[in-house]
Amino acid sequence: MTTTIAVGMLGLGTVGSGVVMRLTQAARKIEQTQGLRLRLAAVAVHHLNAPRAVTLPIGTRLTDSIEAVVTDPKIQLVIEVMGTLKTAERAIVTALQHGKSVITANKDLMATAGEQLTALAQRQHCDLFYEASVAGGIPILRTLTDSYATDQVTAVAGIINGTANYILSAMTAGKTYSQALAAAQRAGYAEADPTNDVGGLDTTYKLMILSQFAFGQQLTIDQLAPQGITQLTAEACQQAAQAGWQVKLLAQAQRFGDQLACRVAPVAVPQTTALSQVKGVQNGVAVTSQAIGDSLYTGPGAGSTATANSVLNDVIVAAQQLVRQTCGRAFNQNHADLTVTRLADLSQRYLIFTDSSVLKLQRAANEGDFSLQRHTADCYETSVLTTAQLRQLAVDLASDGRELTALPIAFSTVTTTTAIKTTQPVHVAI
Ligand SMILES: NC(=O)C1=CN([C@@H]2O[C@H](COP(=O)(O)OP(=O)(O)OC[C@H]3O[C@@H](n4cnc5c(N)ncnc54)[C@H](OP(=O)(O)O)[C@@H]3O)[C@@H](O)[C@H]2O)C=CC1
Ligand SMILES: N[C@@H](CC=O)C(=O)O
């Protein structure tokens, strides 16, 4: 038996167009395998007369009234793929108040107002799913919920912004920052305003959501103090690559005991790791857990059809719950109360870039009691440094008018009690 579910959608841009395309192409399979006919009843947009990448199915209403979609009594399920914060929040609240389940790709909103929206959805016995909000086409949230149900995650390290990874990969291959950003925008990877992509905030929102699913821990932006990629040069990316690292904007959360050490920052990822090979718009989430050990989930982190696929998988689950009348269980059930610390505050190795003289650096290293290995003209690898040692090095070089760019080397962090994951520091005279 086939059940028809009436769906409303807010937004018909990159992701919304992908949803329409996939819905049309997969209609038969969805009916055959799920017993569902998903009827797109209405779509709300901002500019009613703007040209569209897709033709809507016959019978689908195009409107510029969000209200008309989220209050339509015939619509049972609403897809929010328009972005924005306040407008999307109001729309989702109204949809839930009208008893509709909601699927969203909006990480900004789910990271900052997810708790309240989830509570409202539960009170209304509706579903609120947001798989597409993290890592685009990779089904990482449901994997963490379902496949790690009995396991304990001890670390996640993710390349979870397609735009930033695309830019860093392109700069390593010789493109300029602005060429690479423009290409990412043309491909539909970047947000309407790419500030959050390159500034690290998009990655931060996604880590906040990932952390809830992986550790049950709610994080705040303040705790993460994110850094973006805007200060990085193509030369630094290329020199790092020559020396054996890929520069990546990495989101990390690492549990030891009841502490969770977190960071969102550009780091040098050793080329010996699989994560370093995640390039272009691809995302990668490395998960370490007690039972499974190390796993890496990779796939397209942005883009029309890949993201739409995640949206539609949520739609199918929510539609099945509607049929069974079992809606209202929160997407994430994992809750913990860990002490959040900064990975940046721990001792670790760094890749540093400076045009300082070798002699000056050698003196600074001797006085600071650490060692340096020179890799390329301006690129050096330090032994394990405390933050105080790193600060002092920057001060020493600044006194000579020299600048220092320091990239933490991923997975080189040590604590006084626990070596989370470390390799031997290299002590080679320069
Ligand atoms: N692009 C991607 O690869 C991914 C995006 N996401 C998320 O998905 C969401 C959508 O992204 P994307 O498709 O790229 O965005 P786009 O900018 O391509 O599309 C946004 C759509 O929403 C509509 N819209 C915007 N504001 C309003 C409003 N006030 N009222 C009615 N309609 C409105 C726009 O209408 P109009 O066309 O008329 O201007 C447009 O159709 C965002 O939350 C984004 O973060 C998540 C994962 C990947
Ligand atoms: N702008 C985002 C889109 C997906 O979330 C990205 O580049 O990753």
TrEMBL record:
On whether Phosphoprotein is a keyword of this UniProt record, the answer is: no
Pathway(s) per entry: Amino-acid biosynthesis; L-methionine biosynthesis via de novo pathway; L-homoserine from L-aspartate: step 3/3; Amino-acid biosynthesis; L-threonine biosynthesis; L-threonine from L-aspartate: step 3/5
Catalyzed chemical reaction(s): L-homoserine + NADP(+) = L-aspartate 4-semialdehyde + NADPH + H(+)
What Pfam families does this protein map onto?
A: Homoserine_dh, NAD_binding_3
Q: Keywords assigned by UniProt?
A: Amino-acid biosynthesis, Methionine biosynthesis, NADP, Oxidoreductase, Threonine biosynthesis
GO MF annotations, alphabetized? homoserine dehydrogenase activity
Q: Does the keyword NADP apply?
A: yes
Domain Homoserine dehydrogenase catalytic, first and last residues per copy: 139-316
Going by the entry's taxonomy, the superkingdom of the source organism is recorded as Bacteria
Domain (Aspartate/homoserine dehydrogenase NAD-binding) ranges: 11-131
Q: Which family does it belong to?
A: Belongs to the homoserine dehydrogenase family.
Its name, as the record gives it, is Homoserine dehydrogenase
Q: What is the lineage of its organism?
A: Bacteria, Bacillati, Bacillota, Bacilli, Lactobacillales
